[in-house]
Amino acid sequence: MEPISYLFSGLRWQDALDIGFNSYILFRLYVLFRGTNVIRVFLAICVLWAVRQAAVSFGLIVTNWAMQGVITVAALIIIIVFRNDISNVLQTKNLKSFLWGIPRYQYHTPFNTIVETVYKLAEEKIGALIVLPLNHGIDSVVQGGIPLNSNLSRELLVGIFWPGNPLHDGAAIIQGDQITRAGVILPLSKSKDLPSFFGTRHRAAAGLTELTDAMVVVVSEERGKVTLFKGKQTQTTRDKDALTKILQKHAGEDSTRKGFRHQTMELAAAALISLLCITGIWFSFSKGLETLADFEVPVEFMNPDKRMEIISSSASKIKLLISGARPLINAIKPDQINIKLNLSQAVVGINTMAVTKENILLPPGISLKKIDPSELDITLDTLIEKQVAIQPNWTGKLPKGFIMTEAKVIPKTIRITGGELLLRDISTIFTEQLPLDNLTESATITASLSLNPASLKLENKTKISIQYQISKKSDS
Predict the structure, then answer these.
(1) pLDDT tens-digit profile of 368-397?
(2) pTM, entire model
(3) Which of 39, 63, 194, 290 is most deeply packed, by most CB within 10 A?
């Protein structure tokens, strides 16, 4: 198995931004839909996707095909069956709650105030609908309402449900010690198991608790009774102490602080799981779109000894087989791939050097598959200076009847620099080719030296003068 560091060696900052952005979107979807059937189905799809990836890894063709079909059907189920829940989320008017708001936990709630107000309304036979959210948000399933964000008090709560108040037919949402919204419209339950004497308020309370983990307190306008809704359970109570205990239990049996800590841990775990899921998807796609390509890259020799010279190399270019996502491969420029060999430890003579991944610089997101050749033979020699004779390089023949009687080179010798091994067998250096075909008179000409091999260097660029004498042959 490849090390984790190697798997993520090609991670670019663009990939990190892509993973972070999509992880946050996944986390926000969890926050908005948690506690509803949507999130349960979505989590089931995630499990099926994990099973499918495992099937691909083990080569289970039929299982992979079956899981792919089930995932497609499940995605359609979410869109069709839960379209109302999805629509409610998309129509959320509070941009803050949609993008980054976190539902507050029920801590520091003055339950005595709620209980006293509820029984006061029941005594007066004034209908009321009070919602106390718990861990899961309700913004995705409720509509309308007026934001209040006012401190909870008996007078304010009675005033909201007092007949004639425009908000009295809706629900009041209490979070902590504040009434956050009033006049809120709750989803009606479609259950046929509810008692026939339940009115619209009771059906709205049942509809909300079927979709979330909130508790709803309903005061009946006709009967003056207090009914509690949580999950699919209903409970009618006539005792203030009993109602207080039920509300406190709903907020958290152990302590409100522990309940708040539990919610924080839940959201932190959801954020981590979202990050891991998106990272897994990124890794799956980035490896799934992998393609291969060949590149010929010239070798760059680094840190050679200044007293030495590279005489020869078995290859001047290396052929690399690389892999990566097709868009990254297509975007590679020639100067983005470099091969550098360190000659600081090289010695005089033939040095066999291995070409490894450490010598090759690749763009992020690209991995190396093959190096050809994987070794280079590099010949180095110590630079020395040597005084050698200069010899004119005559070519062709003089015209008929002429003869060269003397040729004098100025200067006669010159100092050249080159490798010790190379200069060991060199005692003469020739000029460029000098044609004889049209020479009929004595003269002085200039010529350049021909350096062979080209690695040889002259001490200066002095032109060579050649004085020659030509005369006619005597008839005998």
Answers:
(1) 889 989 999 988 888 888 888 888 988 988
(2) 0.43
(3) 39
